[in-house]
Design goal:
single chain; about 325 residues; alpha/beta; D-Maltodextrin-Binding Protein, domain 2; 2 domains; ten-stranded mixed β-sheet; globular
């Protein structure tokens, strides 16, 4: 009887593996939904649509972008975590939901490590420090002097954890009193900045670069450790008057935990193929993104290493969990 039991167990396992392999070979056989935690026009959204269009072209299945901005990405992350683990719901997101939120909030309705299957890293990106020309400042030092002359009067918009933490770091390291104003996503903050409703903002290049070139916004600095090739004349914030200042974000693709390994591998290979296309790399570079390819394991390791890093940055910036 034991021998028969072992044979049945082995047969069941073999059939299960065969079934999963067959499933992976036919995947995708229907449209794929991609949840994005930020609004249309944000860096994550633009990157999602570029990659999604190429996936749809290659696989002959529609890739539907589902924007769910608000609550620092928590709404979208919870929806993605609770979706069926069948490969038909993906989560294109950033360090906001997967690394910073655990330190920005006392309690989250999702676990960035346990509830997600890493698929592929996408890119790294830095935020520009932009102001309305009507503010009357042209350098970071001018902005700091203005803020010191009017404590508590200037404010900064933010629509992501990178945007918020950049602003709070600037406040702390420059020794100024400025007030944060939250938005569902960075594009809404940029709109209000142009209208003069807020004083300044750290935001992704995608949402601000064309406004800078059009003269609607003035770029004073960039939050990365080196200058942007798109705006070589714009200094880093560290160069411009806040020594030691540096904070850069990243983007990646995830699926609900439990998504079959074969599906994860197929998605990873396709996304890396797309990111390595010369025209795609050039297009994303012109949007201020540095392409970042890799394996699911590398993305998982990135998340695990970034959570304590962001915890330290957030604590040093004086941000108290909500």
């Amino acid at each position: 009887m034991r021998a028969i039991h072992r044979i049945l167990v082995l047969l069941t396992a073999t059939l299960a593996v065969a079934s999963l392999t067959a499933y992976a070979q036919t995947y995708p056989s229907k449209p794929i939904r991609v949840i994005v935690p930020f609004s249309a026009g944000s860096a994550t959204d633009v990157l999602t649509r570029v990659v999604g269009a190429k996936m749809a072209e290659a696989w002959g299945q529609q890739v539907v972008v589902d924007n769910r901005p608000g609550a620092s990405g928590i709404i979208a992350a919870e929806a993605a975590a609770k979706a069926p683990a069948d490969g038909y719901t993906l989560f294109f997101t950033s360090n906001t939901t997967q690394a910073a939120n655990p330190s920005l909030f006392v309690k989250l309705p999702y676990d960035p490590v346990k509830d997600f299957a890493p698929i592929a890293p996408l890119a790294t990106a830095a935020n520009l420090l932009v102001v309305s020309p009507s503010l009357g400042v042209s350098t970071v030092k001018d902005l700091i002097q203005l803020a010191k002359a009017h404590p508590g009067k200037l404010n900064f918009a933010y629509g992501s954890s990178l945007s918020r933490t950049n602003g709070e770091m600037f406040k702390s390291m420059a020794g100024i009193d400025i007030v944060g104003v939250p938005y569902k996503s960075n594009p809404q903050g940029v709109t209000d900045l142009i209208a003069g409703h807020v004083s300044m903002m750290f935001t992704d290049t995608i949402t601000s670069l064309h406004h800078v070139k059009a003269g609607k916004l003035a770029a004073l600095g960039i939050g990365s450790g080196k200058r942007s090739t798109l705006l070589p004349d714009i200094p880093t914030v560290a160069e411009a008057g806040v020594p030691g200042y540096e904070l850069t974000g990243w983007l990646g693709v995830f699926a609900p935990a439990g998504t079959p390994d074969d599906i994860v591998a197929k998605l990873n290979a396709e996304i890396n193929r797309i990111l390595n296309l010369p025209d795609i790399r050039e297009r994303l570079t012109q949007q201020g993104l540095d392409v970042l390819t890799g394996t699911p394991a590398q993305l998982g390791a990135l998340v695990r290493s970034e959570i304590p890093k962001w915890a330290k940055v957030i604590k040093e910036a004086g941000i108290k969990p909500e």
